[in-house]
Known about the structure:
Number of strands: 0
Radius of gyration: 15 Å
Structural class: mainly alpha
Largest sheet: none
Number of helices: 3
Distance between the termini: 42 Å
Strand content: under 5%
Amino acid sequence: MKHLHIGLVVILVVGVLAGCGGGEATTAPADTGDSGAYTSEVLDTSYPDALSVSNQLVLGTVELEGTEHAVTPEQATALLPLWQALQGGVTAEA
């Protein structure tokens, strides 16, 4: 029963992210001097047909399901706003 709840939470998170990614933003980007795309030291997007960083994160999260490192419902609740921010292009400046 616990695995069913975890599975449903993961499916919900993936569904929300997939639903939010359908269209292009029409607002003009802020002039920050960089490309505005999220970059990662760990997730590589430099090769042909590479998934975006956010898609790599979604796929990695889904792949954790069924392992000892699967996302718990509590973690999913905490991660959802972060996923939404990443999907929406929110960035934090250091």
